[in-house]
## 1
Amino acid sequence: MEKSRKPKIRFKGYNDDWEQRKLSEVASMHARIGWQNLRTSEFLDKGDYMLITGTDFVDGSIDYSTCHYVARERYEQDRNIQISNGSILITKDGTLGKVAYVQGLSVPATLNAGVFNLEIRNVDMIDEKYLFQYLKAPFLMDYVDKKSTGGTIKHLNQNILIDFPIIYPTKEEQALIGDYFQGIDNLITLHQRKLEKLMNVKKSMLEKMFPKQGSKVPEIRFNGFTDDWEQRKLSDIYQNIGNAFVGTATPYYVEQGHFYLESNNIKNGQINHNSEVFINNDFYERQKYKWLHTGDMVMVQSGHVGHAAVIPEKLDNSAAHALIMFRNAKVEIEPYLLNYQYQTSNSKKKIDNITTGNTIKHILASDMKQFTVDIPSIGEQQLVANYFIQLDELITLHQQKLEKLKNIKKSMLEKMFI
């Protein structure tokens, strides 16, 4: 038995060295063997005996709503793959190394092919939640990657898994660590559900607060507004609709300079800075006649076509590349209303109808000049736009909280384990 160093962070009162054993010494592994494999005709939509497959794994748990069922004789075929609450499962085919901890199971269940069932050999030595978190951490896949040869592994062999080193403290400390990470996981799940709910609200309201095809009024609108929405061509709204710089700008890239807005920065109505390109001052000044100003709109014209965004104040006087620009409004217009209208299924279908190309999609500025949008009074425009702006702010807030929690977990995995 090997001795290992201590983690960087641990609970008070625990100072002993951690021990190390092979996974096969800690747990036994069982899977559905070849002759037991199920035919798809045996999958039932309902029944008394649930069938768990690797595709039912979601963020360390089982989504029971996607599970199939099997007949009783298939469930009773192998006791070693009968699943209960507290079982630890690992996918060995498809997406390798996904781990799930079974909770909230209310019916007898068995495994489909491609999944290992881990049974702890000595429950007085190993805590099930600790082992689950240790296997769910990046250690397992890092180990598999090092052991792999000849390209991508598409099957996690048991002879690789049995030697995986499990490093652990006393069971009492294991339980504290397992509960700590389960608490973080619960928070992550909570924020993930809130985020999904908000995104579903936005998706639903986009369809209800803009007129459907052939209609002159939306299904839901603010009190006091009853007039029909007008349909207008974008060329009637904007004086200038044209392409941003479309040549090669690579020779003018610099590490520090002027931010150069590109299609990679436009997604789902937002401007992101996930990837940033900067250009030198000389090239920037040469683009002056095409600079974008606060309130102007841009749209991706190649690739993920139709994604648009409004230029915020902090990007006033920005240069852009490979985007369609909508500038110098002729009429009173709330640009964010158009930005959200482009995200409706109606507008997406209309944009798709004017795209060209099979592998890589393209749209032309000349076609967008003829594109029609639905416009209410400026007062209603602003109310609708502000509603979705606030909804997007809530979505962004939950995305940031979720990312923060994931980063905390990642950091603590490195510091609380060895």
Note: The chain has a mean pLDDT of 92.
## 2
Amino acid sequence: MKTQYLIIGNSVSGVNCIEGIRQVDKKGKITVISDEDVHNYSRPLISYYLGGRIGEKKDLSFRERGFYSENGVDLLLNTKAEKIAPERKKVITGRGDIEFEKALISTGGKPFIPPIGGYSAVKEGTFTFTMLADAERLISYIKKNDIKEAVVLGGGLIGLKCAEGLIGRGMKTIIVEL
């Protein structure tokens, strides 16, 4: 597959990039790939989803579903960029290679897991909180195990937003911060 503009990531910066491109180039082919399965959502709102203030995933969207077709964008969901070969202007994905003229990597940040002794041995009941899938896994775990209390490691914006969602679910929540 060939595209003029390749955007890896489908959050706010990726969508803003689409809008910026369309201001100067109305026809160039734009392809967006995302390893997630939703067309777009506001990551800061996942705390409201966790807390039950937003009940439907569709209510997390900040652009209508027609945004992509209206802007002539090929949106490839569930597609992970596995390797980038910038010298060949190519991205390798599980669904095939994509050649591009220009590319933007707008995947957002990744959670930092501090080097805490024994942490790697603990799998069940530990979560990160940066993506909608994280919130969905957390909600499922809470419901399945009837969890009433939680500890949030980190008092930055993401930790506080997670705590806000947990408190919204009526959970006793403790925040641990360095």
Note: The chain has a mean pLDDT of 94.
